[in-house]
Design goal:
The protein has twelve helices and nine strands. By secondary structure, it is an alpha/beta fold. It starts with a strand and ends in a 6-residue tail after the last helix.
Length: 330
């Protein structure tokens, strides 16, 4: 059975606050734990008013403290924004607080604009050092070596599992070379999904962390009682994508009856290209869509985004997804 997990953007709603978004994330994780989801990840985004997960390690601690067994982690940390030593210290600390439950997904993109990157005291050129930074981070999390002068206290020896995340074939090649699990961001960049998975699996080299390739596929799913209701709820995410192209990223908007009145033909074409793998509909529609996606990708795990404005309806969406995937906990 294909494992299912959750990627939460910790959206701040137009009628909400960052604290409410953080508490909703924690509440969702607690429900997901009972529904059989394997892991709950949050992503690093900066300078975005509508996303409350910029301090990613802090958010992970908040979520993990409100759950008992589900794995909690980053999907991902944008490593070019940070010194590997600092990330090792943060996630090593989390590993001591929540043993055996912390994941660390790593992305190569800065995840922000050039002005914000400057405010982070980082450079876009740092992306070129991504492979070396991953190895440095991995070394800090490994058991200490004789003569080692720098230790990431208290991370040494925690061996927090690393993932390589990406939306191109570069990440697939790196994950294969290092023998790490690989997550593809097809929930917003689906074009190279199948080529990337093929490269990853063909070139995979076993490692101390992983003997065989393990591929995770990101997918947007909006589940509701009917197809019509699901399409209505999906307009929240569709508006958010249109706003990206307008340079007007803001708080998460409530759904609207007719998305065609909101976006231009160009915005629609751009958004629908990014969202082309989205599965939106009733339980039957969602089940058929997920089964088709798994058959096409042979994914080991699905990382699901369900960007719904109302918290209770988002809970219902994830419950339906778990039920149709047979993940309901006994």
């Amino acid at each position: 059975m294909t494992a299912i997990s959750i990627l939460d953007l910790v959206r701040v709603r137009q009628d909400g606050t960052p604290r409410l978004a953080l508490d909703h994330a924690r509440d969702l994780a607690a429900h997901a734990e009972g529904w059989g989801y394997r892991r709950f990840w949050v992503a690093e985004h900066h300078n975005m008013q509508g996303i409350a997960s910029a301090a990613t390690a802090v958010v992970i601690g908040h979520v993990a403290a409100g759950t008992q067994s589900i794995r909690v982690g980053a999907g991902g940390i944008m490593l070019p924004n940070h010194a590997p030593l600092v990330i090792a210290e943060q996630f090593g600390t989390l590993a001591h607080l929540f043993p055996g439950r912390i994941d660390l997904g790593l992305g190569r993109a800065p995840g922000t604009d050039q002005t914000t990157a400057f405010a982070l005291r980082r450079s876009f050129a740092n992306s070129d050092n991504f492979p070396q930074d991953v190895l440095e981070l991995q070394a800090y999390l490994a058991p200490g070596q004789e003569g080692q002068r720098i230790h990431a206290v208290p991370a040494t020896g925690t061996e927090v599992p690393l993932w390589i995340l990406g939306s191109s074939t570069f990440g697939a090649q790196l994950a294969a070379e290092l023998g790490l699990p690989y997550g593809f961001a097809s929930h917003f960049a689906p074009d190279l999904l199948l080529p990337a998975l093929d490269i990853y699996r063909r070139r995979f080299k076993p490692s101390a962390q992983l003997e065989q390739p393990y591929a995770m596929v990101g997918v947007n799913v909006i589940a509701a009682e009917t197809d019509a209701e699901a399409k209505f709820l999906a307009t929240t995410q569709q508006m958010s994508f249109a706003n990206i192209f307008r340079g007007a990223r803001g708080l998460s908007p409530p759904p609207i009856p007719d998305i065609e009145t909101y976006w231009s033909p160009m915005e629609k074409a751009q958004a629908m290209r990014m969202l082309q793998l989205s599965i939106i509909g009733s339980p039957e529609t969602v089940q058929n869509g997920l089964e088709t996606l798994v058959a096409e990708t042979t994914a080991d795990e699905l990382m699901i985004v369900s960007d719904i404005y109302d918290h209770d309806l988002r809970l219902r969406s994830f419950r339906i997804i778990a039920e149709v995937m047979g993940a309901q906990a006994g």
